[in-house]
Every structure is written in C-alpha cells, then in structure tokens.
Amino acid sequence: MNRVHTNREAREEGGASPAGSRLVAGAMLALAAIFVVLGTWQVQRLSWKLDLIARVEERIHAAPVPAPPPSEWPDIGQDKDEYRRVKATGFLDHDKAVLVQAVTERGAGFWVMTPMVLSDNSIILFNRGFVPSDRRDLSTRSAGEIGGTIVITGLLRMPEPGGAFLRSNDPANGRWYSRDVAAIAAAQGLANVAPYFIDADATPNPGGLPVGGMTVVSFRNTHLVYAATWYFLALMSAGAAYAIHRRLII
Fold first, then answer.
1. For the chain, does the N or the C end have fewer beta carbons within 10 angstroms?
2. 194 membership: H or E segment, kind and range
3. Are 129 and 214 in contact, with CB atoms under 8 Å apart?
4. 84: buried, middle or exposed (CB in 10 Å: 19+, 13-18, 0-12)?
5. pLDDT at residue 1, rounded to an integer
6. Is 248 helix (H, G, I), strand (E, B) or coil?
7. Sign of CA dihedral 67, 93, 211, 165
8. What is the 3-state secondary structure (H, E, C) of 7-71?
C-alpha cells in the first residue's frame, strides 16, 4: 500500500535534515546579529563624523589664535586641532624652502613650503601657497620673497607622511610629493620644528605668487550608506532564518 508523504517527510527525504536546517537557521541569526552590530557602529561613526565636520566648520571661520608653542606640541591632535585658524610672527627662511608637487583647481604646480623662524627659535613650516609649474624657478617670482619680520595667518594642518596614497618623497633629489613635516625638516637640517604646518590664507603676496587660501576642507562621509547596507543584510539574514524555521514547523 502506498503511503501519502507529509510535506515534512518529503523534505527530510529529498533535502537537508532538520538538524542541518536548524544549524543553517542559527548561522543566519548569528550573521544578522553581527550585521546589526556593524550597522550600529557605522551609525556611531556617522555621529562622530558629523560632529567633526561641525567643529571644523566652526574653526575655519573663527578669529585666529596664536599658533601652538613648543610646550603644546605633544598634545597636538588631528581631531581637536586640524583646520584651526592660527597666526604666527617671525621671518621666512627662503633658502630652506621646498616645493611639493600639487594638483589644484588652478592646474598642476607646487606648494611652497617655507620655514618660519619664530622669536624663540622654534620653526613652523608655512605653506605659502601655490605656484604653477612654469613659475617654479624663484627668478620668475622673486617679488614674492618677503623679507623681515612678518605676521602670517592660516589654517593649522597635520603632516602628510605619504606612502599610502601619495608617492614616496625623494629628498636626495629634491622631489617632494607630500607635505611630510619631519622629512622636510630632516632634509633641510631644521631643528625644533612644530609637528604641524600652516596653510596660508588668501592674503595676496607681492607679485601675486604664491597663491594662498587654497586649502580644500572636505571629509569623506559614507557612514550612512554603510549603515544602511549592514542593516539590510541583517534583515535579509533574519528573513532567511525565519523562512527556514517556517519550513521546519509546517
């Protein structure tokens, strides 16, 4: 006599065992939990990034404050200090300046990184601004080589070590691709150098070069997209676990 198979018996004979199905369902639930944790972490990162953007926006429009002196250098940090508007007084050591390759809205050229010597003999690297490739030679822009004691204003920036996204610097041949403060200081024989540099504001230089005020302030912010992706994967995994569970009980 033929026996009528139940749906459950048919699945057990032709597919995975109940134990195997429960194992898969458990794995899906575990994945859902992991995806929820990852999504929540991205939400927290989004909150941190929005707060950072708001703080930076406030800094770049604030009145300039004195550049951090040597006593504060150990506490300089990217999150709390970068893009602060600062000012410093000293003289520019043009003989120790280096040119760092740059690609800007004005085209290809160089940043002019010039040491500024302060009254206490500490040094801050000052990014005086941009010069196009055809004005690389000092003789083509000598009017901009300011002498004497001056006051500079700009944005505090953290060093660019290079290597990961930028080409490695070649100090021996005078080829610079990143604004690596420590490397520039070592190559130029500078001591007591601040662990940051200053990007010049838009105050014009004699002769028009270098051109300051070209700092690009932008932050990559994809945390919301990542959070939505992780939560969607969590929902899909939970749905798969529920579907397996439904098949087991029918």
1. N
2. strand 193-200
3. yes
4. buried
5. 45
6. helix
7. negative
8. HHHHHHHHCCCHHHHHHHHHHHHHHHHHHHHHHHHHHHHHHHHHHHHHHHHHHHCCCCEECCCHH
Q: Which residues fall within 8 angstroms of residue 4, CB to CB, at 6 or more apart?
A: none
Residue 129's pLDDT is: 95
Tokens of residue 141, six digits:
């822009």
Q: What is the mean pLDDT of each run of 10 residues along the chain (250 residues)?
A: 49 62 86 91 82 77 95 92 95 96 92 97 97 91 91 95 73 92 96 97 92 83 86 89 80
Q: Give the integer Cα–Cα distance in Å for 142 and 186.
A: 26
In angstroms, rounded to a whole number, what is the distance separating the alpha carbons of residues 198 and 118? 14
Q: What is the pTM of this model?
A: 0.72
Closest CA to 234 of 42, 43, 46, 30: 30
- 184, 123 in Cβ contact below 8 A? no
Pairing of strands 107-118, 123-132: antiparallel
> Which two structure tokens, joined as six digits, stand for 138?
């000092």
Closest residue by Cα to residue 202 from 247, 152, 165: 152
Give the 3-state secondary structure of residue 176: strand
Indicate if the alpha-carbon torsion angle 229, 43, 49, 76 is positive or negative.
Answer: negative
Span between the terminal Cα atoms of the chain, in Å: 25
Backbone torsions φ then ψ of 157, nearest 5 degrees? -125, 150
157, containing H or E segment: strand 150-157
